[in-house]
C-alpha cells in the first residue's frame, strides 16, 4: 500500500477526484495549499496563482501505478506547471476491515514495498508565516521548490513548549521532494537557518518514496 500525494492546480482537482473514483480508490482527501515558486518563475510558466490542491489517497501498488499513469495522461503531469506526484509506502494498516476496504477486498501482497531511494520526501513543520525562511534555506542547499499546507498544532496539555518549540499554534507543513544525495544537506541547512532556535522553529524529517512523477529535470 502507498500514501499517494498528488499536488495539482485548483482547476484540475475535480478531474483528479473523478480519476480516483474511476479507479475505485476508496479514500482520497482533498487539501488546500500553495506552491513556493517565486513570482518570476510563475510568470515564466504562465501561471497566475501559486494556489494548489493536494489530493492524498491510499492505494495498492497496482492502483498507485494506474493513478500515476492516468494523471500523466489526463492532467499532463510531467509538463512544467501541471503538478507533481509522490507516493510514500504504508507500513501497516489498523484492522482487517480497513485493509479490505483500501485494497478492494483483495488479499494484500506479503512483501516489502519497492523503495525508490533516488528520492526522498522532506517534511518541514514550522510556525505560520515562516515559509520563506525555510525555503530560502532549502534552496541554498539545492531544493527546487515545495508545497505548503496550512494547519494548527494539537500539542497535548503540558507539551505546549518543547525545546522552545511551540506545539499548539498555527503551523505550515512544507513538502519538499529531493534527490537522496541532497536530502541531508537540505535538512541540515533548514535546521541551521530555520530550526528550533529561530523564529521559524522548524521540525524536519524525511520519508522514503516508492514513485515520483512530474519533477521535470529530476526524472530520467
- Helices and strands, in N-to-C order? EHEHEHEHEHEEEEHEE
Question: How far from one another are the termini?
Answer: 24 Å
What oligomeric state best describes the polypeptide chains here? Answer: single chain
Percentage of residues in DSSP E strands: 25-35%
Helix content: 25-40%
Using the alpha-carbon principal axes, give the shape.
globular
Number of helical elements: 6
Residue stretches low in confidence (pLDDT < 50, at least 5 long) are 39-49
Overall structural class, as computed from helix and strand content, comes to alpha+beta
Describe this structure in words.
The chain is of the alpha+beta class and about 220 residues long. The protein has 6 helices and 11 strands. Strand 7 (about 160) and strand 8 (about 165) form a beta hairpin.
Structural features:
alpha+beta, two-stranded antiparallel ribbon, globular
Q: How would you sum up this structure in a few lines?
A:
29% of the residues lie in helices and 31% in strands. The protein is an alpha+beta fold.
Task: Describe the SSE topology.
Layout (H helix, E strand, L loop, with lengths): L1 E7 L4 H10 L5 E8 L3 H7 L5 E9 L1 H15 L8 E6 L6 H7 L16 E9 L3 H10 L6 E6 L8 E2 L2 E2 L3 E10 H15 L8 E6 L2 E3 L7
Antiparallel strand pairs: 1-3, 1-4, 2-3, 2-6, 4-11, 5-9, 5-10, 6-9, 7-8
Amino acid at each position: 500500500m502507498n500514501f499517494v500525494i498528488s499536488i495539482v492546480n485548483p482547476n484540475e482537482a475535480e478531474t483528479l477526484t473523478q480519476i480516483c473514483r474511476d479507479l475505485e480508490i476508496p479514500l482520497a482527501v482533498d487539501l488546500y495549499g500553495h506552491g513556493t515558486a517565486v513570482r518570476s518563475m510563475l510568470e515564466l510558466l504562465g501561471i497566475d496563482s501559486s494556489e494548489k490542491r493536494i489530493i492524498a489517497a491510499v492505494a495498492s501498488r497496482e492502483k498507485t501505478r494506474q493513478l500515476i499513469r492516468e494523471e500523466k495522461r489526463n492532467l499532463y503531469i510531467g509538463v512544467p506547471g501541471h503538478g507533481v506526484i509522490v507516493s510514500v509506502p504504508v507500513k501497516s494498516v489498523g484492522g482487517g476491515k480497513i485493509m479490505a476496504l483500501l485494497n478492494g477486498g483483495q488479499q494484500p501482497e506479503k512483501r516489502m514495498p519497492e523503495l525508490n531511494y533516488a528520492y526522498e520526501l522532506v517534511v518541514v513543520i514550522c510556525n505560520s508565516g515562516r515559509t520563506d525562511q525555510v525555503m530560502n534555506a532549502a534552496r541554498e542547499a539545492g531544493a527546487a521548490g515545495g508545497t505548503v499546507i496550512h494547519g494548527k498544532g494539537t500539542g497535548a496539555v503540558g507539551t505546549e513548549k518543547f525545546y522552545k518549540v511551540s506545539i499548539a499554534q498555527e503551523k505550515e507543513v512544507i513538502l519538499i521532494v529531493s534527490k537522496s544525495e541532497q536530502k541531508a544537506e537540505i535538512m541540515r541547512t533548514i535546521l541551521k537557518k530555520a530550526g528550533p532556535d529561530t523564529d521559524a522553529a522548524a521540525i524536519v524529517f524525511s520519508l522514503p518514496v516508492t514513485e515520483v512523477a512530474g519533477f521535470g529535470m529530476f526524472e530520467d
